[in-house]
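This part of the workshop introduces the protein records we will be handling. A learned vocabulary of local backbone shapes supplies the integers on the structure line. Getting from the letters to the tokens is the skill we practise here. As an example, a complete record with its sequence and its structure tokens follows.
=====
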Amino acid sequence: MSLLDDYADFQSSARHHKQNGAQASAAAFSSQPQDGLALDVNEFDTDGYIATTLEAEDAPVFSLDTVQFRVPNKIISLAVSNDILVLVIEGAKVLRIKLQEAHSIAEASVPVNPTSLRACNVFLDPSGRHLLLSTPQGESFYYYEGWDAAKPLSRFKNMEVTAVAWNSSAWSSATSSTRTILLGTHDGKVYETELRPGSEKAKRSDIAVHCVAELPVRERVTGLAMEAFPARRKHHLVLITTGTRMYQIVGAADLESQTGDKSAVFEAMLRNGLTNPNFQEIPGMPGPGALTVHHRETRAGNRAHIVATDFAWLTSMGVFFGRLTFGAQEAGDSVVENAALIPYPAPSSSTDISSTEQPSSLSLTEFHILLQYSDRVCALNMLNSKVAYEQTIGSSDETLQGLTVDETKHTCWLYSPANIYELVVTDEDRDVWGIYLSRHQFDMALEHCYNDMQRDMVLRAQAEHLFAAEDYVQSAECFARTSVNFEEVVLRFMEKKDNMVLRSYLVAKLKTLRKQDHTQITLLVMWLVEIYLSIIGDIEAKLASTGAAIVSSSVTQMNTTAEPSSSSSSATNDSSESALSVKAAYNREKSDMQKELHALVEERKQAVDPKTTYQLAESHGRRDFWL
């Protein structure tokens, strides 16, 4: 029997309408086709993933492709930024390749004995225009796009540059300068400089460099990062890593006021910060020490800002990583949150865990830590610390030498002396929703859902979680957005015998219906009318009871006045004030329900059946509502 049929017989069964109408209404909904999903805890594996079937055409999240490029000589070093790939090869040559124009290859020379350049550190700025080369012998060279040869940096004598912190304010700048940058060296010093091309005709570059700090423990600087606070542009964070320590230095440095050969901007901040340093130390033998920071683009109005969000550091015991949170920190404070240390994973092909090799370099994507070993690359999921990908390179006699990520174009690259590889990343967040769901982080899970099926699973799990926590109103609103059978949900909430909960579900469900669902809309609207009338009646009963209590309290107070007693008088006054407060709350609640009822009828007037509405109002003694 449908709810409309039940309305036709309303006068003969008015008092049984609520239960029968609920079941009939639910039956009317349940007769409609449903795309319900049975959510089973077994769908979650031990890593927090959900066992969903990918379409056959879906590409894997990670795949390693060999770049089809014949390298003229052995590769010494490689860097990629802003779709510009730079190779330093034996023979003291620099190859600069525009990846969008693969045929466009610029070649430049490095002014050293061609046979002497066997190793060097290469640093390419985010714009892809400025290249810094530094050799273990302490020679440094600067190359700018379009030059035929790199230039020796005459003031960088006996400095092996081992790390560079680029200036984020120059990432999208039209200027030809890098602006202020920091350099870390092999002997535990930090220098400040600014790379700018100057005259191409000059054979050497006399770019100034200032030593601005020395580490308390003189170790090789293995990583360096310089990050501006998003809301406090003159406030900066400098991260410095070695094989055993990671230093956090927070302070003020006005990069806009000092450039070129003027006094060093970071000197006071770094020297003060290293006097009583804030650092994380990993005991034991020094680790690889490499540091990487992941950035995301945020927008404030029409302006885009690059903000550092995560970091990772290679230690002797594993990968130390965490979030970077910028706020009101001052000198000596930490910006690191949710830090964790993940032991290096053993290779899947090895059974000897004790022989685990340490990676030599790393990079970060939005959700993964990429680790480069001598013979393979692997990706660790930052959310659950599990190995999400591992791939061994094809040739047994080939040794990987480096890994780099182009943050501006979100591409990942590896290289050996003979080959270049691209680690292709496709929809790396496709499984993230399941991990968040397993942690009951429902909002984050919904944010990363790819399709309606995933969203339905998250909402169902959230609704069940709230129901178990007895938060029935919120649970009802979540259930209304799922494909769970209408009758099933209604019966579960009716068992709670709380009209407010049922009202929440029906109101939320009504919002999900389409305009053409006329019958279902009418069913819900008329049912809601009765529920609202019932709720208002219940509130009025409570008001009557509260009024009686107030009258009783007043009589007691009058008697107490005749026979004074300080304790009894105080108790009577408190009781009277409490009852008045409760009455005011009930009156507000009644007013709210009346407003919601009138708004419902006004908004859905086309779905309101006049005869049935009159009968409902009559049965609840609410002729004022009908009028």
About this structure: The chain has a mean pLDDT of 84. The radius of gyration is 35 Å. The chain is about 30% helix and 25% strand. Residues 518-562 form the longest helix (45 residues).
